Amino acid sequence: MLYRPLGRTGLTVSEIGYGCASWWGKPAFPEAMAVGLVHAAIDLGVTFLDTGASYSAGEAEPRLGRALKGRDVSGLVVATKAGTFHAGGGRIGRDFSPAAVTASAERSLRNLGLDVLPLLQLHGPAASELTDDLLAALDDLKAKGLVRALGVNSFDPAVIEHVVGLPQFDAVMVDYNVLRPEREPLISRAAAAGKGVLAGMALAMGHTGLKVAKIRGAQDLWYAARGLVRHREEVRRGARFGFLHRQPGMTGSQAALAYVLANPDVSCAVIGTTRPAHLHENAAASGMALPPALMARIRAAQEV
User: Are 267 and 170 in contact (CB under 8 A)?
Assistant: First the structure.
């Protein structure tokens, strides 16, 4: 596994990060398997673990805490998110008030069993919600030693543009993958401002080559249904990238991750999986070079 600096935070992260969310955190997915995947990721050299207070109906964060219990976490960058929460009935609530974000951070520390949060990200805020009072509260969390670095996870380019100009934030997480080349200028500006850049949705949620349609278990049905309901356009666009899964010397997932990591301004590509074989496959993408001919073919498919 190779490692990259996370902007100017002083933190170093693995090129491949593991997302502890979605099906991974749900009670229907056995806890022993979920914990085993975290331990396997760490053993493979993964140092960036990403979760959130609202993920998996609020179950992901405490499950990650149980997975980390008794482990040496000194070399890990555990990232969580505040501003959204599980509101019951499958609904996600939002509260970016200073008191709510502070309380969320304190609760995350307890859930994760940590003394300090290496990275706390605001989860999908509107630019108008980044008030002076909230920024002061975030500064206070840092001053108290409860949070080391601050970030924003948003797939709204306008919000990220705004955050790039705010000194309180050290990192941004954007949706960057073969289906999102338009994020590259934004990533460049964020990196130039000293922000660490995390690539969320690095595998485009399995939409390349209709891979998401391959059903082998309950989790596949869940992801496929989510894709068809929420991401139909991505599924449609991803169909033209089927060639990624027919490359010699690398799998489709490895090719997609190699594309993301070919961008030197990206610190880490975050993946999520509930299968050990996929975890090993994705971790092996670290350090892989994308052949120039394949990059050219990707660029051509992006222009269609």
Answer: no
